[in-house]
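DM from R.C. (forwarded with permission)

"hey, sorry to bug you on a friday — could you get me a structure for this? deadline for the figure draft is monday and I only need the backbone to look sensible"
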Amino acid sequence: ESQGEFGVKRRRGRMGGFGRGFPATICLVVFALSFAQDSSAFVGGPSIFSQFPATSGGNPALCPLAPSLRLARVGGGGSQAVSAAPEQAGLGNVVDAEREREEMECQPHDVNTLETSFLPASFNTSVLGKCRIVFPEQMPVPPSAPQDATKPLLLYIPGFDGTTMFAESQFADLSRHFELRALLIPGDDRLTAEGLVQAIDAFLSAWQHESRCSDKPILLGESCGGMLSLAVSIRRPKGLNSIVLVNPATSYRDTLWPIVGRLLSLVPDVTPLGSQRLPGLLDTLNLRAPLEERGLLPDRSLGELAFAGTAAPLLGLRMFDQGQLRKYGGMALDLAVGLARDVPQGNAPQKAEDLAKQAVDALQYLFSIMPPPTVKHRLKVLEDGSKMIEGHLEQAEVPCLVVAGEDDAVLPSKDEAKRLKQAMPKCSTTVVKGGHLLLDGAVNVTQIVLKSSLVSPQSFRKNPVDGWTRPSAEEIRNASDSISTLRRLTSPVFLSTDSATGQVERGLRKLSSALPSEGPVLFVGNHQLLALDLGVLLDGVYEETGILMRGLAHPMLFESENGGVPGAMGGGMSGNMYDNFGAVPVSGRNFAKLLQRGDPVLLFPGGLSEALHRKDEYYKLKWPEKTDFVRLAARYNATIVPFGGVGASEAANVLLDPEEAKEFGESPLGKLLARAAPGAAAAAQAQGATTETEGPDSSSADRLAFKDVPIVVPKAPWQASRVYFMFGAPIDTAGGHVKGAE
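My reply, with the result:
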């Protein structure tokens, strides 16, 4: 035993002492099983499976892939308080008494669970069945009881495996910002989907009742846990701050996995001599004793071995992306190379035997946490969970962020993210590089949550005006490089006007020389079709003047990486592009704060009406009758720079006006096309939504209503026009009559 970071003793179990090389052993086992089954027809095929039995499901304290993870030990009988008797469901004819005995024997016995003082006192733990609510030890900060917590609760809901194994790398950062807890679902638990949803809901209710933190809890659900998190949010729309779904299994019923999974669970029963255990068979060949003495004999039946050999190629390799395969495969290769190097010293036989022992222990562990009965039960959880949310997505009022891996070979995550965004009223998505196990180091989910204005806790949200940090020169350069192709296609030309003579010349030299050295500057211009000119405008003004204009943008544009603007700059920066470059949600208050700070402000008074115009409205100004923004600018002695832009609208033709596009979308043909290409209508998912934010130039929220989106078709590259921006002479408002109509 050793003293833990928080003065809690922890025991280093046999499984926990494998060290960092053990993931490679697991990977070798999966590779070997896959090769034995000739899995090449399945690996790398189309994404047809919705979920997988991953390589963990028991207690993370004993997990070989997460040796550094420990859980705070319960003191004096607290184990019974957290872990109550399970509700055992019938498993049918597939599971016989022998398998039930084996399943119970192989469950981890050294259970470390969260100290009950860190759980809500009013929480009835019996609803958890055999599940547990845990706090990972060795975190930067200790856990707090609900009544002492100053940070919002974040509850992690695991995937099909039921453990925190592949999310471990996220916990340290999460614990710095949130009161972190995780649900563990052991292999012998038989709670139904309804039971799990009720248990999570009960825990959240108890926590919120006792917590003094002003922020509501957040659910972080991965894969199967994402589906359960969504079901919980539909149940308690007012009790959650937000939900974050990482490759959610909400598409389960739309894949082939329900069929494949049922067939997979039958493998042990159809295997010849499937009930015969391997030690008994080897005993007849006089091979049992020497293998058992060396710990090289897995005590499993032939049916279970056949199950593992079938499941590994179908699931084991699909859940790893190329980077993870290289990482774990490289570790396995290092083990093999090290073994070869030991041959001359005569140490190879002993090291090979040690590696084989680890492989057998890993195989035993995989069997213990995900035996066939558990797989069958969790497939039923997926089936029932899918039914729970079916037809209720439009009722999901809790803000939701879907994080999808673009290379997910287990789930069609990218398409599912689009579907959820269309169907749910408050949903944004982000697609990142990686496969199914995104939380295994592929992303920093803490930063994703904190940078999202949609799902971050209310108290975390920075002042959009004063909390902005100017991007570094390198970040601005990378952003400029991200639109290099667009810049080459449009060849933008910038023109400025001499204040004294009115003469127009190429470049912005006249503009730079006419602007004051200090004080606010307001750039006012027209929006072009779909804001295709936005990136080149910001880039060109910065390149020639060094001015990084801070835009007043529609609030909906802060809910995704680029806001859905085709010409937006990205440059690989994480978070929302508008936040990164100083834009703020349009409102009179934010506008005034920017002017008060003396910042350069970019305003398109025509807003969405100009960007989403009709076929006969090219370059038509649609500014409000009341130009209150001029008075506000004059109040802060701002210099106003009017400008006009042309050319970007020539890059595409408006095929259907917004009203026609809406009518077409509601037609049978439009609905058929939307189902065939779910991303085609993504832009229209916010139709009819309004934002309760006052504009700088209008007292009505109607100007912030997201308009119907026109259907446009791009022109051929040789038909595209060059883009021109002409900046008028700056207008000094100092000393003007703020209340005067003129």
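R.C.: lifesaver. The chain has 26 helices and 20 strands.
me: no worries. Residues 348-369 form the longest helix (22 residues).
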